Each structure stands twice: as structure tokens, then as C-alpha cells.
Amino acid sequence: MDNNHQLFLDFHLITMQPDGEPYGLVRDAALVVRNGVIDWLGSATEFNKQDFEGTVIKGEGRFLSPGLIDCHTHLVWGGSRADEWEQRLSGVSYEEIARQGGGILSTVRATREADEATLYAAARDRIEYLMRQGVTTLEIKSGYGLEIETELKMLRVATDLRDSMPVDVVRTFLGAHALPVEFAGRPDEYIDLVCGEMMTAAAAHCEAVDVFCEGIGFDIEQTRRVLEAGKSHGRQLKIHAEQLSNLGGAGLAAEMGAVSADHLEYLDESGVQAMAEQGTVAVLLPGAYYFIHETQIPPIDLFRQYGVPMAVATDANPGSSPVASLSLMMNMACTLFRLTPEEAWAGVTRNAAAALGLGQRVGTLEVGKQADLVVWNINSPAELAYGIGHNPCRTVYKHGEAQVYGA
After folding, report:
1. What is the pLDDT of residues 180-191, one digit of tens each?
2. Which residues make beta-bridge pairs with 12?
3. I need a surface site. Which of 111, 152, 243, 293 has the fewest CB within 10 A?
4. C-alpha span between 163 and 157 (Å, rounded)
5. Radius of gyration (Cα) for the chain, nearest Å?
6. What is the pLDDT of residues 142-163, one digit of tens each?
């Protein structure tokens, strides 16, 4: 028996290829994996299984999809912000909590104090939870260090997670996440550090560079400097933009060739046009929208009008989106942002892959792509976005090898 040669038989394939049937659906199908790569797929009646030598996995009419991709996370952090959340529910303002030393700076303090083993163990638990729900690729940002030593510590932990777990990890340097207390009133000096010594040290440990362009983050010129520095080091560009106001960050990032712009609740039509012209992916983060009680949704109709691909991610972080369920984000994208279930599926597969620069490798079921596969106990693709609080994931395959068993 050839364990490197597998036949997935009697499955309905959710290929997520954009042409053809909704969801790229192929019913009563077969899919062949050789050495961790998809070698053939199509109708089972077109495949001569009599000549097949290898392992046969029978689907019994279940659905088989690409592995899910969580393309925006902050999964490595220290401490907890549950007490602050409780305070806010009791009427204490975010500003007052910040004056007390809370907010993002409390996470920065806890992350600086935590050792790598502690950060690794906590992040590993979060990733295992996502894996059990069908996630096979994800991004991890730094950004809770705001100093060279801790930013590198976070990126090293992300590297260790990538190297020790059956999941692909894209590492993103987010040194320009917030202004650390030691640079209070001196944001340009901090950006000097981010673009200089910090970027130089981080570049060897990341694939992408990100920046928080916002009134409570960094202005448009500071953002431009960070993106230019990231580009000079040959890294992919990403941006947190237009979450709370419209500073023009998404348009700037798109013009500089960014792979994605994320949040985007306050994005205007000119920014959408800039993203469309570049092919920049709009990453929607409904968990943060929900958790901070935002009321303005991203410009979904404009994204559709201009053909901007929409991804959906958890934004998993301790302050504004303590979420560890990509299927819940699919549901929220549909119910809060009015995406269709098929758009939500595209958001966690092919568009999420594009948002990480991995579209040639993962995100759809196609010959030549990685055999990152998920078997689902569902009766239709829409059920994954429809259900809340249950996990229909049955089996996850990474490079064709079974990794996680679910329901």
C-alpha cells in the first residue's frame, strides 16, 4: 500500500475555484493526492479506480474542501484583558482604563514580561483550537513588544510554532502597532526606530510588514515610511486601515503594492478603486466590529462593484477580538456585513490565500496545489457559515496526512 498516494472517493468537492458551479462544487467526485499534492480531481465516474494503488479514503457523500486560512491574527500575546472588558461593561471608559495602564499597553507589558516558552504554550493552544475547526494556514503578527527584543521574541515564537505544528504560518512584523510609553509624545522618533534598527532585525524573521494607520495609531506619512521600509527589505506589505476613521491608508498601501488592507469600515470609494486597480485584498474582521460595538460596516457593495476580493479572518487578539473560530467569523460576515455564504467561503479560502501571497499554493482544490483538505459533516456548503457554536469538522489533512479529528 502506497501511503504517499491517496484516493478520496465518494466526496462532494468544495473546490472554491471561481468559475463554474457555486462554491466550485463537484458532486460525487474523486480526488487523488500524491506526495502531499493534489494530482487529479473530477467526477468519480471519470476515474479508473481499478488501476489505483494506494490508500482509499471513502467519503460516503461528505463534503471535502480546501483547508481554511485565517489571514489576520495576533495569536502570540501575554496576559489577559478580561478584567478590562468587565470594567467596560460596568461603565468605565476605554480612556480611563488606558490612564490606569490598561488597553494595548497592558498586553505589551505582559508580553514583554513573558518568556518564550510561556508565549509558545498559550499560542499553541489557540492554534490547536483553530486546527480542530479546519484551519491549515494562518498568519501571526508581532506588535505587542514595541521594542526590538520583544518583537523578535514574538517572531521567534511564531517561527517555532510554524516549525513544530502541522500548519503553515506567515509571520508579519507589526512594530508600528501602537506608541510605547517610553516614546510618549515622540511618535516620529519611534517610527525612526521601527523603520531602522527594528526593521533590519525583524526582516530575517518575517514574510510581511504591517502598520496600524489610525488616529490612535500612526498618521499617513508615518505609515508611508513604514511601508517604504518594509518594501526596501523585500517584504510583503499589509495595513490596518480605516477601522475608526478614513485617513487614506488603504489607498496608500494599495498604491505601494500591498497584498491586503484590513478592517476598512470607513473606507471610501476612491480607496476601493485604488485597491481594485492593484488587486489588494480587503480583509474583513467582523469579530472586532462586533466586540467594539462598531456601527458602520465596510463598503461591501463597493467591493463587489469594483471586484475587490474579500477575505474574512478572526483578528484573534486579547483586546478587540478574542475569537478562535473562523466559522463564527463566516457567520458574522454574513449576518453583520451581508456577505453571501459563498462569499464567506471564498473569504476563508482563495481570497485569504491571496491576502497572504499564497494563492499559487493553497486556497482552492486544484491539481498541483497542496493537499490541505478538510472533511465536513454538513449537508450543504452554506451550513458552515449558518451554524453557531458547533464544529462540523470531521478530519483535517495537511499535505495529505490526517492531523485532526473532529465531530
Report:
1. 999 999 999 999
2. 63
3. 293
4. 10
5. 21
6. 999 999 999 999 999 999 999 9
122-131 burial code (b ≥16 CB/10 A, e <16): bbbebbeebb
Nearest to 273 by CA among 244, 295, 248: 248
Count Cβ atoms below 10 Å from residue 216 Cβ, excluding itself: 14
Helix (H, G, I), strand (E, B) or coil at 171: strand
Provide the H-helix boundaries in 233-381. Answer: 249-255, 269-278, 286-291, 300-306, 326-337, 341-347, 350-355
Residues ≥6 apart with Cβ < 8 Å to 19 = none
pTM of the model: 0.97
Domains of the chain, each with CATH number or no CATH? 5-67+364-405 (2.30.40.10), 68-355 (3.20.20.140)
Cα-Cα end-to-end distance for the chain: 28
Please list, residue by residue across 266-304, b when 16 or more beta carbons sit within 10 angstroms of its beta carbon and e when fewer do.
Answer: bbeeebbbbbbebebbbbbbbbbbbbeebeeebbbebbe
Contacts of 17 (CB under 8 A, 6+ apart): 24, 350, 364, 365, 366
pLDDT digits (tens, 9 = 90+) for 117-128: 999 999 999 999
| Contact partners, residue 189, CB within 8 Å, separation at least 6 | 183
State which amino acid sits at residue 324: A
pLDDT > 90 fraction of the chain, expressed in percent and rounded: 91
Looking only at the bridges linking them, the beta strands covering 5-14 and 393-398 are unpaired
- Residue 281: its H or E element: strand 281-284
